[in-house]
Design a protein that fits this description.
single chain; 103 residues; alpha+beta; 3 helices; 26% strand
């Protein structure tokens, strides 16, 4: 799995509303700031390759929210690692056969 540092930090990256979009071995993911200004949270979404978030069917995307803090970002990283391990066969299949079930 990519390193925790690859998720950047809350104070600079997510504060300006940037969205991290990345992938690892067939699992695409994005991390973004979500919610109202006083109640920001970090929202992480995962889905199988080959498409970007905007072009993927919503029923293939799983999302979870975490506290808007560096500790929350640590939890995001742990969740991503666990999600990859739990569904490794799914992600590897998406990596090896990206258009399976799409065409």
């Amino acid at each position: 799995m990519n390193t925790r540092k690859s998720l950047y930090d809350v104070a600079t990256f997510y504060k300006k509303g940037a969205v991290l979009k990345a992938s690892y071995e067939g699992m695409r993911y994005q991390v973004e700031r979500a919610g109202a200004e006083e109640e920001y949270c970090l929202k992480v979404s995962v889905w199988p390759e080959p498409f970007c978030y905007e072009k993927t069917q919503q029923d293939k995307i799983e999302a979870k929210e975490f506290a808007y803090s560096e500790e929350g970002l640590d939890e995001v990283y742990t969740w991503l690692c666990n999600k990859y391990e739990e569904e490794q066969e799914r992600w590897e299949h998406a990596r090896d056969f990206p258009l399976d079930g799409v065409l």
